Request: fold
Amino acid sequence: MSDNNNAATTGDKQIKVTLLKSPIRSRGNHKDTIKSLGLHHINDSHTLPDNPAVRGMVATVRQWVKVEEV
Reply:
């Protein structure tokens, strides 16, 4: 069994995450999660792989971000 097959199927999907609100008054772990997603300013967007780790981070800060499938 080849690992290339698995990598090809999981690496194709991507999501675009956009920061909509300022996380200034949020908890520290939410600010850290937003930073980990690569978002720094309002309307800042970042394209990330669609995997369970990224989806979990997005779910944590769902009230501050918008997600689009690319």
Q: What stands out?
A: The longest helix spans residues 3-11.
